[in-house]
Amino acid sequence: MASQKLWGGRFTGTTDPLMTAYNESIHYDKRMFNADVDGSKAYAKALEQRGIVDKVELGKILEGLESVRAEWKADKFVLHPSDEDIHTANERRLGEIIGTGIAGKLHTGRSRNDQVATDMRLWLREEIKIVKAFLVDLLKVFASRAEKDIGIVMPGYTHLQRAQPIRWSHFLMSHAFSLLSDLTRLNQLYNRVNQLPLGAGALAGNPFAVDREFLCKELGFDGIIMNSMNAVADRDFVIEFMYWSSMVMTHVSRLAEDFIIYSSSEFSFVTLSDAYSTGSSIMPQKKNPDSLELLRGKSGRVFGDMVGFMMSVKGIPSTYNKDLQEDKEALFDSVKTVSDSIQILTGVLSTLTVNPEKIAKSLTADMLATDLAEYLVRKGVPFRQTHHVSGSAVRMAEERNTTIDKLSVDDFKSLHPLYEDDVVNVFNYEESVEKRCAIGGTAKSCVLEQVKTLKEALN
C-alpha cells in the first residue's frame, strides 16, 4: 500500500520535511498502542451493531488488530514515514494485514479527535493503577519503620531550630499522612479520568448512532462524557493528574530534604544505604545522598510539566486544536517521573539506618522549657504567666553559661513559689513525649494509633 496521509485528499502540495517531523507524535505516543487497539476493537463492534461492517468483516478487523498488538509487544512493528501518530500507524498496518477495503471502514464516524482522547484515558487509568500500587507499597514501609523505631526520641524542629522532643516514628508518620492524602486524591482522580469520549466524532457527534453506552461498558469506563465538543477538547484529566503528581512530588521532596539534612555529618541521624548513595570523583571520603537530591530536583521537573501544559491550554479556542498534542510528552514524563520517584523513595526508606545514639546526643534541656511552664499550669497557674516564668529560667541559665536542667531547685523556687523539689523530674525526654497523649500526639500509644489508622486505610 502506498504511503498516504489520512488527511491527504484535500492537499496537492508536499509538506515541508521539517513540518512533517514537527507535526508527528509517533515516537512518543506509540506507547499507547495497547489502548489504541482496545479502543478500535470496541469501536469495530459498535460499527457491526449499526450494520457498517458485517460479522465476517468484524472478525477480520478484530483478528487483524490483535496481530497489530502482537507486533508491538514483540517489538516487531515497522514504522513507515507516513505514520505520524499511533492511530495512523495502527490503521495503516491493519490495512496491510486484512486489506484496506475492510480496514478502511473502521474509522467510519470516528475522528482522531475522539480516538486520541479515548486512548489517553485508557492509557492513563492503567498507569494510575500502577502508580497507586507503588504508593501503597511506600506507605506500608512507613508503617513498618514507624513500628520498628517507636522507641527513638528525637528533637522536633520548627524554623529548623530545636523545638520539642518527639518520637522518630512520629516524624515518619507526619510524612506518611501527607502521602496518604495523595493516595485519597488519586482514588478520586481515577473516576474523572475514566470517562468515555469515544463516539463524539471530530466535535459534533457520531452520525451513525453508535451505541456509546455499549462502548462505555465494553471499555470499562465509569461514565460517558455527555457533550461531544467537551469530549474532544477536555484535557482537564491530564492537568489534574499532573497536578496530583506535583502534589506528591512536593511531599516526596520535603521528606528528601529532611533526610538530606539528617544524613549530613552535622546531624548523622540517619545513614543512607550504599544502594542509594554515590561518591565523589575527587574526595574519597564523601558519601553523597544523590537519590534524595534527585528526588528533590525532579519535583521541579514535574511542576514544569504541569505549568507548561497549562500555559498551552489556557488560550486554546473551543474543541480540538493541535496545541493539545503537547499533552502527551508532559503527561508521559510526569507518569514516569512520579512512578520512579515513589519506587526510589521506597528503597531509600526501607534500607535507611537510623542512628539512635547520635539522635539522643542532640536532645538538649532547653527543648523542655515548655514542660517547665506546663509544670506550673498543672498547679493552676495560667499558661501566659508560666511561659514568662519558664523564659526567666532560660535567661538565668544563659546568664550563668549553663543549661536549665543544671539550675537548682532553689533557683526555680526563686522564680515561682509553686516550684517544688519534683521540678527536676521535668527534665526527662521520654516523659515529655508521653505527656503528649491527645489524639495525634507523639506519645507511644498515639503514634501506634496513627500506624493503625494508616494500615486500616491501606486495607
UniProtKB/TrEMBL annotation:
Lyase recorded as keyword: yes
Protein name: argininosuccinate lyase
Name of the coding gene: arg41
Domain Fumarate lyase N-terminal: 9-304
Sequence similarity: Belongs to the lyase 1 family. Argininosuccinate lyase subfamily.
GO molecular function, one term: argininosuccinate lyase activity
Pfam families for this protein: ASL_C2, Lyase_1
Cited InterPro entries: Arg_succ_lyase_C (IPR029419), Argininosuccinate_lyase (IPR009049), Fumarase/histidase_N (IPR024083), Fumarate_lyase_CS (IPR020557), Fumarate_lyase_fam (IPR000362), Fumarate_lyase_N (IPR022761), L-Aspartase-like (IPR008948)
Pathway: Amino-acid biosynthesis; L-arginine biosynthesis; L-arginine from L-ornithine and carbamoyl phosphate: step 3/3
